[in-house]
Design a protein that fits this description.
The complex is a heterodimer. Chain A is mainly β. Chain A has 2 helices and 11 strands. Chain B has 2 helices and 10 strands. Chain B is elongated and about 85 Å long. The N and C termini of chain B lie far apart (75 Å). The chains are: A mainly beta, B alpha+beta.
């Protein structure tokens, strides 16, 4: 499993080295441009509207997620994302509940030069979730053993993971952006209690997986200060 | 083509995808379609000529004190194996091996950990096992080997019993 994580981290480093090298290609032949100092150009507030589709795709889950991104030169974006998730399952053979929050910190890199207020690029995040889960009236049936019913007391965990994303954001109305991103999430530590695996780690996804894939679908509002 | 065009184009694609997904999910039932059995494969290998002569294995049965029934060995299509779940309510499983052609029984104690996993909302919980060790009587059993100690929906736990 550890080898798997190293493999992903190695692939990510190779990927970014390639992008960096590609970006530098022109500068081998022309006079290097003077580096533009980093300038704060604006703040976007976003809501992950994909989470509202839970009622159809994951009716057992109620969750929400928002983000702030800090625009530096339309090239680099400091990202803060946070959210809440709860799961309630009441079935004939078990009751399961999970509740927790998550927080992600990272950066996006805009590869566009021609339409700099839009975004097409890649991102990196470090995520952390704090959550607890428990189960009651868990019935285990078998052909030979008598029916066994048990409860599992609430257990609390911190989980850390790493994300790589590729996405787009476009300004559809003035100051209103729509964006998608495809995400690969790699578990780093915590929350993998084999004796009672969490069903869904807030912000990360399926608790039994080391790697989860995801798609975010965001609407952003750019706070219009100092914008021409 | 600007990012706005891409976004709009992808928006259309996304809407179609959502509609297809809604259609797909609305057609799915509330039944469990995943593997939920966590069974231990127990291979029975008779090497003792005396036991072979009296056809010990042909009338062999396995049971536990807590069971309401027993498993009778059947030669056909079994690959010399029987399958059963370890105890969901204890970290020790006691299995008794008996045969109508002999007077004594053998008992195997399997010591294991139990892991409760919610595999899906529809299927609910399964118990995965991790066998730590075992002990057995030696009336007819010569030796017992753990070949795979993980018993789960993905892993076939496997022990071999030599008589």
């Amino acid at each position: 499993m550890r080898m798997g994580i190293f493999k992903y981290i190695f692939s990510i480093i190779i990927f970014f080295s390639f992008i960096h090298a590609y970006g530098q290609e022109d500068s081998l032949y022309v006079q290097p441009e003077e580096k533009e100092p980093l300038k704060f150009l604006g703040l976007k507030f976003g809501v992950n509207v994909g989470r509202f589709a839970d009622f159809q795709f994951k009716p057992e889950r109620f969750s929400y997620e928002g983000s702030f991104d800090f625009n530096l030169n339309n090239k680099y974006f400091g990202i803060i994302e946070a959210g809440y998730s709860e799961i309630d399952l009441e079935k004939d053979t078990y009751n399961y509940s999970l509740e927790g929050t998550f927080f992600k910190l990272g950066m996006d890199y805009n590869m566009l030069k021609k339409y700099p207020s839009d975004f097409l690029g890649i991102g990196l995040r470090l995520g952390r979730a704090n959550f607890s889960h428990s189960a009651e009236n868990v019935s285990i049936e078998d052909d030979h053993w008598p029916l066994f019913t048990t409860s599992i007391d609430s257990r609390t965990y911190n989980t850390y993971w790493f994300e790589v994303s590729f996405g787009v954001k476009g300004e559809l109305l003035k100051n209103v952006y729509l964006g998608w991103s495809a995400i690969v999430k790699v578990h780093i530590s915590g929350g993998k209690d084999e004796s009672f695996l969490p069903y869904d780690i807030p912000g990360f996804g399926k608790g039994g997986n080391t790697v989860n894939l995801g798609v975010n679908y965001y609407i952003y509002y750019q706070i219009p200060f100092d914008r021409k | 083509m600007t990012i706005r065009d891409i976004v709009k184009m992808k928006n259309t694609g996304y809407c179609i995808l959502v509609l297809v997904a809604i259609h797909f999910f609305s057609c799915s039932d509330d039944k469990c379609n995943l593997e939920t059995d966590t069974l231990l494969k127990t291979e029975l290998l008779v090497q003792d000529q005396n036991l072979n002569q009296i056809k010990y294995i042909d009338s062999l049965s396995v049971y536990s004190d807590e069971w309401t029934d027993s498993i009778h060995y059947s030669k056909e299509g079994s690959n010399n194996s029987i399958f059963f779940m370890l105890s969901p309510n204890s970290d020790t499983t006691q299995i008794i091996i008996t045969s109508t052609v002999v007077e004594l029984n053998d008992t195997i104690f399997l010591y294991h950990k139990r892991n409760f996993v919610l595999i899906s909302p529809e299927c609910g919980f399964v118990v995965n096992f991790n066998i730590d060790s075992l002990a057995n009587t030696r009336n007819y059993i010569d030796s017992v080997f753990i070949r795979n100690n993980e018993v789960s929906t993905n892993e076939n736990g496997h022990i071999q019993i030599y008589f």
